[in-house]
Structures are given as C-alpha cells and as structure tokens.
Amino acid sequence: MKHELPKLSYNLNDLGVAISERTMEFHYGKHHQGYVNNLNNLIPGTKFENASLEQIIMEADGGIYNNGAQVWNHTFYFEAFSPNPKEKPEGELLRALESNFGSFEKFIEDFSKAAATLFGSGWAWLVVKNDGKLSILQESNAGNPLRNGYKPLLTCDVWEHAYYLDYQNRRPDYVKEFWKILDWKVIEERFQKLK
C-alpha cells in the first residue's frame, strides 16, 4: 500500500492569522510529504507493506514507526484547522473539559503550558483515557497516544519546523496563536465518534 499526503480542506495561505503560507509550504509541503516519502521507501518487503498507519503506530519500531507516526500526527494536526474555526466547544465536549479541568479557560491554560514546556521536539495531546476521562499528554519526537491505548482528540505540533519561520524561538507565542485557527467543530466530531 502506498501512503499519500492527505489533501487539506483549506489553502496554504488561509491560516495566516497564526501560521504563514511560507511555514505551511515547508511544514505541510516538505516535512509532512517527507515523512510520507520516507515511509513508502521503508515498508516494501516488511510486514508493514500493506499496513494502516494505526497498525504501524501500534506494532512498528525505528524508522517505520517514526515516519508512520509522524504522517498520522501531522494529518491529525492539520485536519483540525480552519480559516473560519468554531472558537469554543459546546455540549458534551465542553462539559467534559469543564469536568476534567475546572473550566474551558483552565484547559486552554494547562494545554498551552504542556505544549510550551515540552523539552525538545514533540507533541502536546488532548486524549480520552481508558477510564473515559480527558487528559493532557506530552509526547516526545513522533510519540502517539494510540500506542498507549488512548484516543486522541487534538494535538499541537511543537517541533521547531512547525513554528520557527514565523516565531523563531518563541514557542509560547506560537501556541497562543494556535488557538485562533483550531476548529472546535472538528474536535467535537472526533469526541462524538468515540461515544
């Protein structure tokens, strides 16, 4: 099975309020595409030749895991953006965030801190754990919470390639702007699918 770079639902210049077209050209067009290409080069002749990305995340190691997880992570990240996003969740998801974190604002604060303080490269995640509770996780490098049996709802990429062209070393500024393009409609749909 040949993996392909997923199409975006928006143009590369549509997220300019938070992420520039130049960053999108490199992050989506070069880095995301690079992980797809690397994975396609690594899997022929292995047991992962026809595997889904989820199977690769659960079972692979080394380069196949790293590139497969990065394809999945980036797709999940880019799918959550919109030039006209829903700015706040409603209903069940909002109640779950309030129940687990005290308030929606406290969730934003806690998640932003997790994203800003992750040492080195990696990802901040909002997940549903096995007990049904929401939790914020930090994962280094290509780390993906599926591997631990958790169900991801949203992620923030804090590899430098995600923000350096726009924000240089100011990762907290990037994380602050990230919320301006995150579409809570997408996150609500993901949450509903887990029911």
- Low-pLDDT runs: none
Find the count of extended strands (DSSP E, 2+ residues). 3
The portion of residues assigned to helices is 40-55%
Class based on secondary structure composition and strand pairing? mainly alpha
Strand content: 5-15%
Mind summarizing the main beta sheet? 3 strands, antiparallel
Number of domains: 2
Mean pLDDT: 97
Domain Manganese/iron superoxide dismutase N-terminal: 2-81
EC number: 1.15.1.1
GO molecular function, one term: superoxide dismutase activity
GO cellular component, one term: cytoplasm
Question: Outline of this structure?
Answer:
With 195 residues, the protein is mainly alpha-helical.
Key structural traits:
195 residues; single chain; three-stranded antiparallel sheet; 48% helix; Helix Hairpins; mainly alpha; minor pseudopilin epsh fold
Chain-wise SSE layout:
Layout (H helix, E strand, L loop, with lengths): L20 H22 L10 H7 L2 H18 L11 H11 L2 H14 L4 E7 L5 E7 L10 E7 L6 H4 L3 H8 L5 H10 L2
Antiparallel strand pairs: 1-2, 1-3
Would you mind describing this structure in some detail?
- The longest helix is centred in the first third of the chain and has 22 residues, at 21-42.
- The protein has helices at residues 21-42, 53-59, 62-79, 91-101, 104-117, 164-167, 171-178, 184-193, and strands spanning 122-128, 134-140, 151-157.
- It has 2 domains: 21-79, Orthogonal Bundle (Helix Hairpins); 91-194, Iron/manganese superoxide dismutase, C-terminal domain (minor pseudopilin epsh fold, 3-Layer(bab) Sandwich).
- By secondary structure, the chain is mainly alpha-helical.
- A hairpin with a 5-residue loop joins β1 and β2 (134-140).
